[in-house]
Amino acid sequence: MGRYIDDILQPGEKVLYSASAHWTVYWQAILCWLVALAGLIGSRMSVNEGAMLTGLGVAAIMGAIAIFYTAKAWFHRWTTETDVTNMRVVHKTGFIQRSIFEMSIDKVESVDVKQSVLGRLLGYGEVKIQGVGDGERTIRDLSSPIEFRNNITAR
């Protein structure tokens, strides 16, 4: 299965920039893995059998939840494409149930970037694209949002 953008390119159209969801979409999975690890370490350090079994139970449950969140975040990153071509901006999410928006570069009125302090440090943010007659579209958890914006506005 190829990239969506490669299937929809028009004659003379070329991809200028491709962005993806930032790795911070894994934050829930990372947190669960840390709790599972803490439960495992705590069970190994315990001399009480009840505390050891509780630690192992916490580790097993949090490990299962961590696997779910890891798979969910991976699937989100795998099925999300955000591209800028010389003619349009394309954002696709989903696999079976898709959500796609495309906006002609000529119809882009403004591109706003919103980054928290953590977003600035780690290089992710939210991009709002205001289109003439198309309304406003928001892309969240985008890696390198400033570079993405620059590829839309630079002509």
With helices defined by DSSP (H or I, 4 residues minimum), what is the helix count?
A: 5
CATH architecture of the largest domain: Roll
Query: What is the C-level CATH assignment of the largest domain?
Result: Mainly Beta
Please indicate the count of domains.
Answer: 2
Largest sheet entry: 4 strands, antiparallel
Q: Helix proportion of residues, in percent?
A: 40-55%
Instruction: Write the element-wise H/E pattern from the N-terminal end onward.
Output: HEHHEEEEHEEH
CATH topology of the largest domain, by name, is PH-domain like
Mean pLDDT comes to: 94
Helix-strand category = alpha+beta
Beta-strand level of the residues, as a percent range? Answer: 25-35%
Question: What's the overall geometry?
Answer: elongated
Annotation, overall tally of beta strands: 7
Radius of gyration: 21 Å
Low-confidence stretches: none
First and last CA, distance: 32 Å
From the structure provided, what is the oligomeric state, counting identical versus distinct chains? single chain
In order across it, which strands form the biggest sheet? 1-2-3-4
